[in-house]
């Protein structure tokens, strides 16, 4: 039961519908809100926020509205949730368990539906049963749908929206020819089989000569034919009669547009033309990593290919097979044997204040990598210093743990005193020694002080682990960088710094602060130890601190920065 006046609670309405069409919903969003407003009015609640979702709750982390609700609860901005049913909140055990934990911890003061109320002090079993039933319903529904789809495929039916050139017959539940597009798409296949047209040429003929438009639906369609769409058409086995759903496939009942032999001939033609799927792009290691210092646009990359025609020796730069002016057919193999160059340049998407475009030139990949290696050398640390630093960090840890223990003891004493004051205030209120207003004011003040102590409670920060990882990260970094894949290079550079820029073909790195400290240590060139590393930590503190003042000062800078960053 609720202990305070209804107006004192921060109430949120949570409403959700799945991604299905509107007519298939049990209750629409507006209808849910209307019913929940009536419930709030009956209970005397003031609604602070209405959170909506239009997504399935079957999978976790699929609903931005639910994530926002959890954030509000953890920040103590919401006390009570009003929803239509428990299955509106969760249909998976991950999020269901999260809700039950928050309710039992008292962070949620209540979950109210028009038919059932759940409070922290109540038995959790009814809520667990309701959320468990919602999860089981979803599981059963998924199995039934998969079984139905398999049966439909076995009978030659189709479970998805038919591709271009076909329509759904909603009355007979079959696939029929699209009277406006079937013949046009068939002509596209015939053009491809002649081997005389490339995909861009076929798109131009279909759009300009035949007036082709994709089928208009409520949310999409009505567009001219694009190369990406054409590629999907030419590589879809549905057109020779095959229907698929997951691992199940069978020859369907619909009228095929081409034969199976013609389909595989077209696949061979596409291979000979060097056609790739539109989403199969080359990975560039340094794109979306640097910015142009002049206009602040992103740095992009492009590949250039240079080769000569084997017959006339004319220089060529086309990336796809074509016919040279001398009549010789340039094949994919000839292109692949050419010289490949990668250039990085500013996208130049923004205009400068005076209206002119960015003037920055492009830079070759090899030159850029030379500069990256040069800057990585500036933060490279030798094994000697890293071993010394790890021992020093252990010393820092011991000192910090001692101070942390003293602070935690003081905080526990303060919390105990506040608890006693709260109990005394409740006794005084029960004895009518203070009024309800005085008690409420005192309670609010004490709870505020208690929350402040908990908020500033010394937590186990992991800055030491991050410091050791940072040391290992820069150990022989130049050598390791040369052996990384392009994706690993990008990941590493993202870890080391943020907002590096390019200006006049010069890389200007912006290392994270603790890596910049390493850079200044590298400049000091003090890499020779004067005492053995086998000493104890106490010896390290007494002896090596005297001999390596610069080393200790730099480590202290790293410690201060990382520990402060974690607190923030």
Task: Summarize, please.
By secondary structure, this protein is of the alpha/beta class. Helix content is 48%, strand content 13%.
Structure in words:
This protein is of the alpha/beta class and 568 residues long. It folds into four domains: 136 residues, Resolvase, N-terminal catalytic domain (Rossmann fold, 3-Layer(aba) Sandwich); 107 residues, Alpha-Beta Complex (Hect, E3 ligase catalytic domain fold), CATH 3.90.1750.20; 70 residues, no CATH class; 184 residues, no CATH class. The protein has 19 helices and 18 strands. The strands form six sheets. It has a five-stranded mixed β-sheet with strand order 2-1-3-4-5, with helices on both faces. A hairpin with a 6-residue loop joins strand 11 and strand 12. It holds the Pfam family Resolvase. One of its GO terms (molecular function) is DNA strand exchange activity. This is Resolvase/invertase-type recombinase catalytic domain-containing protein. It comes from SAR324 cluster bacterium.
Features:
single chain; alpha/beta; Rossmann fold; Hect, E3 ligase catalytic domain fold; 4 domains; five-stranded mixed beta sheet; four-stranded antiparallel beta sheet; 19 helices; 48% helix; DNA binding; SSR_resolvase; Resolv_N; DNA strand exchange activity
Annotation field: number of helices: 19
- Percent of residues in helices comes to 40-55%
Low-confidence stretches: 275-280, 524-547
**Largest beta-sheet details:** 5 strands, mixed
Percent in strands: 5-15%
Placed side by side, the strands forming the largest sheet appear as: 2-1-3-4-5
C-alpha geometry: flat
Radius of gyration: 34 Å
Number of strands: 18
Strand-pairing-aware structural class:
alpha/beta
Number of domains: 4
Separation, N- and C-terminal Cα atoms: 38 Å
